[in-house]
Design goal:
Blueprint: E1 2-5, H1 29-43, E2 49-52, H2 65-76, E3 82-86, H3 93-101, E4 113-116, E5 119-124, E6 127-132, E7 144-148, E8 161-163, E9 186-187, H4 188-205
Parallel strand pairs: 1-2, 2-3, 3-4, 6-7, 7-8
Antiparallel strand pairs: 1-9, 5-6
């Protein structure tokens, strides 16, 4: 199966109580990290694919940088699946190079990590999904959808854009009983519900 997530911001303690972003449902990283790992692994299998659309971690305060990269790798190794990393504004190329050098093979013989600087295009369920960190603005289209992160608790006011970040306001298009545990990657069925309901909401507003 394929899953989608963005803006995990592992190790970013300030984000838990930030006034600039919606507070996360934890007081300490020691609570947040195990909960996010458990939520991820509860739905992602060993050989599933997760598209991570940027801003994996925030470890600018750790010196030397290689120590920060090692902490990031240690955490990512606890997450199931193949992880396709699309570079976010807080993901350094040196960090991605470090992961490239420490990239294990899973049981299917394929590497755990793959990397993209700008984005990926995949086709599924009659949609063409543009997977990017930053929101794209490509106008009205019948089949193209931009899955993105970057804007945390905000939603782009365009029906073709779906924010898949863990703090996303677009998650409100899922009913309470449909929403996965906070911090979980989203599957395609959930994405499709969000697309349809955002489309319906915009149609009512015309």
């Amino acid at each position: 199966m394929e899953f989608f997530i963005a803006d995990t911001h592992f190790f970013h303690a300030e984000l838990l109580t930030s006034r600039n972003f919606s507070p996360r449902p934890f007081d300490f990283l020691e609570e947040e990290h195990p909960a996010m790992i458990q939520a991820w692994n509860a739905r992602v299998g060993e050989l599933d694919t997760v598209y991570h659309l940027g801003d994996v971690a925030m470890l600018n305060h750790i010196k030397p940088p290689k120590e920060a990269y090692a902490l990031t790798l240690e955490l990512l190794m606890q997450l199931n699946g193949h992880i396709v990393l699309i570079k976010g504004n807080h993901d350094t190329r040196d960090m991605l190079k470090y992961l490239t050098k420490h990239n294990p093979l899973l049981s299917d013989g394929l590497p755990k990590f793959s990397f993209n600087d700008v984005g990926v295009i995949i086709k599924a369920n009659h949609h063409q999904f543009f997977l990017t960190h930053y929101p794209l603005m490509f106008g009205r289209t019948d089949s193209s959808i931009n899955l993105h992160g970057h804007i945390h608790h905000y939603s782009v006011g365009v029906q073709e854009n779906i924010n898949v970040g863990v703090d996303s306001a677009d998650l409100d298009y899922l009913m309470t009983n449909e929403r996965p545990v906070w911090g979980s990657p989203l599957n395609l069925a959930e994405i499709e519900l969000m697309i349809q309901r955002k489309h319906d909401a915009f149609a009512k507003g015309r």
